[in-house]
Amino acid sequence: MISIIHGLGPTSILEEIGDSADWSYKITVFYVDSALAEAEQVDRLRTFYQQIKSRIHQTMDMNVRYAFVFLPNGDLALINSYRKATKYIKIVELMIEEIEPILVATANSKFCLTMISVECPSYTVVKEQMSKLQAFSLIRILFGINKKWNLSDLIKNSSDDAIKLCHTILKLVKCYHERSHANYMNKVNELKTIFDAEVLFNEESIRKGISQFLFSTIQCQMNISDDSSEWIHKLKIHGRQLLNEIRKVERPQNVIEQTLLIIEKNFMHDISILQIADELELTPNYLSTLFHKKMGDTFIKYLTRLRLIKAQELLRDTHSQVQTVAEMVGYTNTRHFTRLFTEFTGCYPSVYKKSVCKKEELPSSFMEKEI
Description:
single chain, alpha+beta, Alpha-Beta Plaits, Arc Repressor Mutant, subunit A, 3 domains, 17 helices, about 10% strand, disordered N terminus, disordered C terminus
């Protein structure tokens, strides 16, 4: 099974592609680090996705299943589910190996992709492994982007100092892209303190990793033979000279208004942040971050809440059955819809419908809950 599944988290998707004890899982997330304008990032990410989807199609097997999903933060993830047998494990390993040259070919000095994979021997550890993946993925900054990593290798190379350094670099890049000069300079000063206080900068391999990351994301060229004071000096010059040239998406509030209109018009369909970002010529990562910042909620939570509110209206005002209502608000899986509805209202859809039809007062536990 090969598909893009919209609006579901990885754990929900695994319910769709196999969740028995006979199956193992492999999750691969593709991280974009880029200095390109949003529209250009969209084009490259779309090309990459189409190429790897085509390659995966060539390795189809009834006992090896695949699903693509965009995570809440906009990162593209590939989820593999396969039966616990050596030959199926090899199929998945071969598929992952064949993605790497596509990844390298897609990248350039302003657009890098890093794939990080994690094995999940059972369904029960997926959530834990996903949390680790998100926590340690930033270590790629120090040890190399635009390549394939196993999560276990990044964890081995991590430390509290390394994580602190990577967080600071990520925030510096974020401030640069947002044209927030004051905050950018503050992060440069924080970076100076870290460089002066710890030994990580003394390792040439780490300087090489940071140099590649800074050039790929903000086009700041560093010489790995320079000392930390020269790096800080270059970052300050780069901030003064180039910060105002960073492209800024105009009228971000207008972007959100357009997004809300698209959601309202298409919530009953298989809609995703990818589709909306593509229509607005933005990257999923950028739109996801902006949406969360402006709305105070993630795209998936907002869409889910809207669908469930619409479902309540349909159950209350029509004679449609639960399965029909689920499909009318965008859910083809009635079991998944029922679980979400129950979490949202405190009761099953069928109970809600009967209670409303009988004009009985719903208990307080049936009130809408936070998704």
